[in-house]
Structure formats: C-alpha cells, structure tokens
C-alpha cells in the first residue's frame, strides 16, 4: 500500500456508552427504513449539522444486525501498536461538524506522525462525498497521484 486515505475513521473507544450508542444508531436506522422522521438534533448529533440527506443515501438497505456489528467494531476498536511501522503517506479527511472523527485523527496522529489532516468546512459525516462527489473524487485522485499531500 503506497498511500492511505482515511475518511472519518472512528477510533474513539466509547466505553460505557458503547451499547447505548449502538442501540441509538440501530433505532435511528430502523426509523429511516420505516420512513419515520428523526428529530433534527438526533441526526445532527450522529451525522453533523445540516447533513440529514446522508441517512437516506447510506442506510436504507443495511440490516440492523450489520449496523450493530459495525457499531460494536468501531466503538471498541483498539489501535494496534504496529501501526507506528507504517511510514507511507496518510491523509485523514473529516467534516468540520464531526466530533468523533476529529478525536480519532488526534489519536491516530500519535501513531502516524506523517499523517496530514483535511477538514471539510461546514460538513458532517459523508457529506462531502454525498453533496460534492466530483470534488471528492478529484481530491482523492490528486492525493493518490501525488499532486497534493492533503488531497
């Protein structure tokens, strides 16, 4: 692997909040699948401000079991010590309105000092890809083609 793009990677251990966060996410996805409106503050707490469209795009076809499994894997993930051995270019992208990926970037920087970070102003989770796919693809290609470290 020559280069790595981490898009809003989640490495923050949730501790005692693991199960409640898993249930909250599963309930939210169940509501999306049933076309039950979710309160805007709930959506924004999970996906970032102004990012309600992402739910319809990403989660309608996923099973609640898959959501639960993904939550458990993310919320209990431990960064492996051997990650420090990776020396290739790494960029970490996340939206300005994503608090947990911002924390993850800070944690990962201790293992990957070469990691660059790009924060998408005013964006929530997956919002850059969802709302600006051509720009997203252009930045991804630029990073992979060595035209830009941050993408």
Protein described:
- This protein has 151 residues and is mainly α.
- It folds into two domains: 4-12 and 79-144, Alpha/Beta hydrolase fold, catalytic domain (Rossmann fold); 15-75, no CATH class.
- Helix content is 46%, strand content 10%.
- The protein is built from seven helices and three strands; from the N terminus they run βααααβαβαα.
- The chain has a three-stranded parallel sheet, with helices on both faces.
- Strand 2, helix 5 (99-109) and strand 3 (116-120) form a beta-alpha-beta unit.
- The longest helix is centred in the N-terminal third of the chain and has 16 residues, at 18-33.
- The protein is globular, with a radius of gyration of 16 Å.
- The mean pLDDT is 88.
List keywords for this structure.
single chain, 151 residues, mainly alpha, Rossmann fold, three-stranded parallel beta sheet, 7 helices, 46% helix, 10% strand, globular
At a glance:
The chain is built from seven helices and three strands.
Uncertain spans = none
- Secondary-structure arrangement, i.e. CATH architecture of the largest domain: 3-Layer(aba) Sandwich
- Topology, number of strands: 3
Question: What is the overall number of helices?
Answer: 7
Kindly identify the CATH topology of the largest domain. Answer: Rossmann fold
Run of helices and strands = EHHHHEHEHH
Which strand-content bin applies to the residues?
A: 5-15%
Q: CATH H-level name of the largest domain... which superfamily?
A: Alpha/Beta hydrolase fold, catalytic domain
* Terminal residue distance: 17 Å
Tell me the number of structural domains: 2
Using the alpha-carbon principal axes, give the shape.
Answer: globular
Q: Order of strands in the sheet with the most strands?
A: 1-2-3
Give Rg in angstroms: 16 Å
